[in-house]
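pinging the channel bc i need a second pair of eyes. not urgent but kinda urgent?? the chain im working w is below, pasted from the shared doc
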Amino acid sequence: MKVGIFDPLLKDKGHHLQFNLHVAKLFSFDINTIVFLDIGETLKNNMAKFKTQVKDIKIDCVNISSEPCPSNQINKGAGEISNKYLLFGRRVKWYKNIFKRIESLNLDFVVFTSEGSPAMFISTPKFKYMTIVHFSLNLKKNKKSLLQIVLMSLSNRLLKRFLAKAQKIFALEPFLVDEIRECGFENVDYMPCKCFVGANSASESVIQRNDAHFSLLTIGGIYEGKGIEFVLEAYDRHKLNIPYKIVGFPIGEYGEFIIKKARETKAKGCPIETRFEYVTNDEFVGLIQKADFIVLPYDEMASSGYFGASQLFYDSIEQSTPIIAPAIEPFKAHFRNYEIGIMYKPGDATSFVDAIRRAEKTGKSVFRNNLEHFRREYAYDLWKNKMKTMLEKGKCYGKNN
């Protein structure tokens, strides 16, 4: 069978490339041919970086558009609403052309690896498709304006219409599966956003403490909802002397706020180290390995299924680095089944500081066996078989299709 993999929001930075390769590996059972539906040859140009990861998969790359989905400003002289309307129209047209191109390839089915944008939902694909849901379908209550609430409501209605015509829906967190079923969709199952080659992904040297000093790390894009200001305020209030490193590219006003906040906290004598920039994949892995614990201080927005939170969670486990995180989803379900770190009460600085001190006292190696157990439970060979079983049960694949 030929399985198309299409990421409507494909970029050459962040986790996009890794995640699309991950999906390809999960759908590579029965020697399926994976066809990457490329945009601007992004995947093709980066494939050499990941050739060892896909050496056992039959992969083709088909460039379906030379240009990415329109995102630039339409008319500098027009108002915000006018520009949004014009941009939406351009995106609708772009997706229509994309779908026509995909239809011409005669694939057995296509996997949408992200929800895309509302403009994509206007056109219903004529080919068979499955989709992967990253975010909650429930409206957030903390939207800043009535316009944002209206736009989110419209987007959710269009997304649900799109999901209703999908052969299969996969959600990246267990709690999202429950939410989607509550919306009336029964053909949904859990698919992890990362799997592992085996239980012993990390070396013995990584599992032991790497420095004489205990250290904490928060890494990845610095965007609203990540909760880094909570950590900095706890350091300032409780005068913590444990080294804390922040690494990542600052995004928008929140990113600028964290740069200033980190500088102020460090000036007060707190051991804060920062590196506000993109890092290479090798650097990313090395920093996680070197840390004693990864801090994921996401606020309540993580309960909306932020993909970045889940990815960093799995990245930490892959490198045998335990986690400090609030007792919210998407973390709670995993901590309930596997003791892979220390949780604290959301928004409670005292609870957070207690978690840090417990982590310093127990150390990294205490969690080694639990982290290995988690990786065994999320091994690729196991999940490829699970994916095949789920698709056959849902009559999406094999003799029942």
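so Residues 203-211 have pLDDT under 50 and may be disordered. and The longest strand covers residues 58-65. — does that match what u expected or am i reading it wrong
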